[in-house]
Design goal:
Strand content: under 5%
Distance between the termini: 26 Å
Number of helices: 10
Radius of gyration: 14 Å
Number of strands: 0
Shape: globular
Helix content: 55-70%
Number of domains: 1
Structural class: mainly alpha
Order of helices and strands: HHHHHHHHHH
Oligomer: single chain
Organism: Struthio camelus australis
Protein name: Mesothelin
Amino acid sequence: QVASTLVRKFERFPPAILRALGQAAVGLSVSQIENSISGKDLEASLPALREVHGWNAEQSSSIINKLLSSGYQIPDGQSLAKLGSLVAGLNSSLLQSLPPKVILEAIKLPEFAQ
């Protein structure tokens, strides 16, 4: 609830603000994700957003969909692991379409296993 109150103070969320929010980014609404953050800003903020815990399914799915629609690709295990806690937002059909080697590479990376 505190995180939601905090993020309501902003109209736009450039990478600097998303990084500064840290764990409080979990208070972003789906509407804010879809309307107030560009896909490129989400990608630039991945190092911070991937560390946020407690995303609900709608939030993580919205972030992932926005990333993918702006050109983010998952050609290897590193790019999958880079999603961190957001990986839960990948839909099952996308996961099934990934080559097995991508999954095998990712599960060997400590940051993905966490």
